[in-house]
Structure formats: C-alpha cells, structure tokens
C-alpha cells in the first residue's frame, strides 16, 4: 500500500509518468443492482423470439399494486465488479428455444459488460412460458373478409 501511495505522489510531482487511476483522485462509482437489472432486461427484450419478461410472485404483486419496474424478470447478484444474472422470459411459439436462449445470454452479457463495466460471469436463462405473438392490426386486416364495397363511390 505504501508503494502505491509513493507511485501516486510521484505521478503528481511529475517524476513518474505512470498513470494514476482516476478513482483515487475523483472518488468511486457505484451502480445499484437495479441498474444492472434494467440493462439486462432491455437487452433481453431486443432478442428476436423473446416476447416478454416473466415475473415471479413478488413482482406480480408489485405490478398488481401499480408499481411497474423496468427490471422485471431479472435477478442480479453482484460480487465486487462481477455479477451473476438470472433472466426469466416468455418466448414466442415456434422459435428454436435453445437458439433464443443462447442469443439471450450473449446479448445480456455483452450489454452489461459494455454499459456498466461490470463483468457478467454467468447469465442464467429461465424460460417461464411460451406464447403466440399477438397479431398486429395489419395482419388482422389481411385475414378478415373484405368489407361490403357497396358504399364505395367507385361502384
């Protein structure tokens, strides 16, 4: 520790060109676990085949009471500058579930690593359900029968 202090003092005096870590001069940066969870949740929703984040019982009660969370469906355990992330999702019917899960792991890991500078050591994916994607209004209009055109001015 005394050697580190002498390097800092030497760097400040201009004698030693060794870089001084910014955290010693400016302070430290701490991220709440929820910030990491939000980053992971948003990254997970960007993966094709993921329909929604699943909620557990506790999160379901919070949602019922009107307390919405962007970090729903994600649990984070931080140790130092590394973390373990558990993601709970519902996937689209018809997709290749193992492929979606692997893409999900890679996307969440890279997003957390890049945005927070924490190392996501593990990203555990829990598939909680499978649903059909809801049809858009355009898809519904293509499938519905043609409306009666007798009211049209072109007939």
Spell out the blueprint of helices and strands.
Elements: H1 2-13, H2 22-26, H3 33-45, E1 50-53, H4 57-64, E2 74-79, E3 82-92, H5 97-116, E4 119-131, H6 137-143
Parallel strand pairs: 3-4
Antiparallel strand pairs: 1-3, 2-3
Account of the protein in words:
The chain is of the alpha+beta class. The protein has a domain at 26-133: 2-Layer Sandwich (Alpha-Beta Plaits), CATH 3.30.70.1350. The protein has helices at 2-13, 22-26, 33-45, 57-64, 97-116, 137-143, and strands at 50-53, 74-79, 82-92, 119-131. The longest helix has 20 residues, at 97-116. It is elongated. The chain starts with a helix and ends in a 12-residue tail after the last helix.
Count the strands? 4
* CATH class designation of one domain: Alpha Beta
Shape: elongated
Total helical segments: 6
* CATH fold assignment of one domain: Alpha-Beta Plaits
Structural class of the secondary structure composition? Answer: alpha+beta
Rg of Cα set: 25 Å
Mean pLDDT: 78
Any descriptors?
155 residues, alpha+beta, Alpha-Beta Plaits, four-stranded mixed sheet, 6 helices, disordered N terminus
Task: Summarize the entry for a quick read.
This protein has 155 residues and is of the alpha+beta class. Helices cover 42% and strands 22% of the residues.
């Amino acid at each position: 520790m005394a050697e580190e202090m002498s390097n800092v003092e030497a760097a400040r005096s201009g004698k030693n060109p060794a870089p001084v870590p910014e955290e010693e001069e400016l302070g430290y940066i701490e991220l709440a676990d929820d910030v990491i969870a939000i980053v992971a949740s948003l990254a997970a929703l960007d993966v094709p085949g993921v329909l929604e984040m699943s909620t557990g019982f506790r999160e379901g009660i919070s949602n019922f009471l009107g307390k919405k969370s962007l970090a729903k469906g994600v649990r984070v355990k931080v140790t130092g500058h590394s973390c373990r992330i558990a993601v709970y999702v519902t996937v689209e019917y018809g997709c290749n579930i193992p492929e979606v899960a692997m893409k999900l792991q890679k996307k969440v890991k890279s997003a957390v690593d890049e945005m927070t500078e924490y190392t996501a050591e593990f990203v555990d994916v829990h598939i909680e359900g499978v649903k059909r994607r809801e049809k858009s209004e355009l898809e519904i209009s293509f499938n519905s029968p043609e409306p009666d055109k007798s009211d049209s001015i072109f007939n």
